[in-house]
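User: I'm writing a tutorial on reading structure tokens. Could you give me a worked example: one chain, its sequence, then its tokens, then a sentence or two explaining what the tokens reveal?
Assistant: Sure. Here is the example chain.
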Amino acid sequence: MQDQLQKQRTFALIGHGGTGKTSVAEMLLFNSGSITRLGKIDEGTTALDYEPEEIKRRGSIQPAFAQFAWKKNLNFLIDTPGDNNFIGDLPYLLQGADNVVLVIDAIDGVKPLTKKIWSEASKAGLPAMVFVNKMDRERANFQMAYQGLSDVLGIKPVLLFMPIGSETNFSGVVDVLAGKAYAFDDKGELKPIDMPADLADEVTAAREIAVENIAESSEELMEKYLEEGALTEEEMTVGLRAGVLSRALVPVCAGAAMLNKGGVPLLDIVQNYMASPLEHTAWLDADGNERASSPDAPFAAFVFKTIADPFAGQLSVMRVLSGVLAPDASVLNASKDEKEKIGQILFLEGKKQNPCKQEVGPGAVVAVAKLKNTTTGDTLCAEKFPFILPKPKLSPGIISYALAAAEKGDEDKVFAAVQKLLEEDINLRLERNDETGDMLLTGMGQLHIELAVEKVKRRYKTNIVLKTPKIPYRETIKGKAQVQGRHKKQSGGRGQFGDCWIRMEPNKRGGGYEFLDEIVGGSIPRNYIPAVDKGVQEAAARGFLAGYPLVDFKVAVYDGSFHTVDSSEMAFKIAGSLAFKKAVEMCNPILLEPIMLAAVFIPDEFMGDVIGDLSSRRGRVLGSDSIGGITEVKAHVPMAEMMKYAPDLRSMTGGQGTFTMEFAHYEECPPNVTEQVIADSKKEEE
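And here are its predicted structure tokens:
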């Protein structure tokens, strides 16, 4: 198995949306003979985009998997989505790969989202190569795209296959290191041709740069290069591979996936220079214990994706970390300390599932159906050798919508249906907001939420209405007051009596609620004082201005009186509540709004428009930073102004802008906003 694993490759196609990753995957499957015809995204006929929502929007919304052989060597491919709405689980998907192929297109080159995606690949520490796609399209500019790799991403690219021509004249590639030119035939295969005269100087210069970069990958090669001014073909191969595995060098080739141009060079680079599973660094658990990526180590596998299949049920997609996995094996889910029975092992090719009858080793990406206790992020392992791979950190959701049933009485049905979707999409979060009563679905963007709801409607026949959620405003006070809260009720027999004096004042922002017992001399018995506190807290939760919780204040109970027969905890709770209401009115109550820290990533040319737009949303720009044509703008913006920011940013930047946001703090609302919120609250009550 060692020899087989040495030649095995497991890689993920990554890149921003629209670069043609799925078309590249289709080209690779076609060249390897796994599929007999090239599918097209526009026609919804690709092997890997098969969900109705993907076919409808002509783009990937979830990862897809394939297994194929190239030159008799096994390859596992993970096609990742590139839309900002659907890249949230990329850290999990990269745990399944040994390498990444970054796909950029020759029209737009490196975009803001490319930088974010490349950053995740860097964190994962995976060897990488770049495929510059769409060389056949109008406005294709290879040099611009290539330059962005070093200028924006800061990588050291090594050009291995230079394009011959562009747009409608894209006809072949030049093997830069070998100095040989090839033309594509009608089937996309390479046929040797004479070197185009207009490219000769360019190829010579590119080769010199490539050889210099390769020489720098080791002291021995550098020494020889400085002495002799050249490296042998074998030395270049060994040096380039060493540089790729250490992430010092990134090979680059070009092509046009839709026309099946460039698939063979790409596959050869993966085979010749990328890492095998045996070369993956040792896996570490939370305590730093190592598990070697070797078939001789005890078995362990990480479940990095869950798919709901209409026929097979729940499919757990896993990468074998160490050891071997055989059909019908008994394993331990170490994350939950539960035993699992494996059953049949499946190789995936889009929605197709091919049974695997032999055992599989490290690097294999396989699926197993109907595991009882296993979910995304769990580690399966040999029972006697427990091992848990820590779950990667996910980005927080950036937008929430309130869900409502289209028909009254279906609320529980809606909750249950969406809950099922959470099993396969770890970037969705569902919760009930006790304060507003909303059922909130949080995701990575508006499109993410909308397509999740579409899936629920299609799969579970549940109609859902999406509403903008209520903003979690808060109330607080700016002044001080001393008041009496007195509750007296006589209605024959035992009555109710509670009497307290409280002092109310503001607490520091974020200081929360503080209650002080300053009773001396027993004017209120000790057992009734907590009831005053409870009465104040319950009244504060209902607010004063617009029904939002009142926060950041102190209350001290310093005097009062009681009746030996009529006093009770309930009476003092009511007295505390009455005292609170009186005091708030005298303490200059104000409304607070949540402020978000937004980070917006855009091409430089849109900076003025974006900053102007953030200012119009009452935002306060904190600063901006530009690297290689991409600007990051940071700003504090009220949450109420960011609820529909995603589509506005998309239209403002032609789809090139992305953003993240997280809660920062609360600030006092402007008077006009306060008036509107209070008016809306009264209208809702009526």
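What the tokens reveal: The CA atoms of residues 527 and 569 lie 8 Å apart. The first strand starts at residue 9 and ends at 14.
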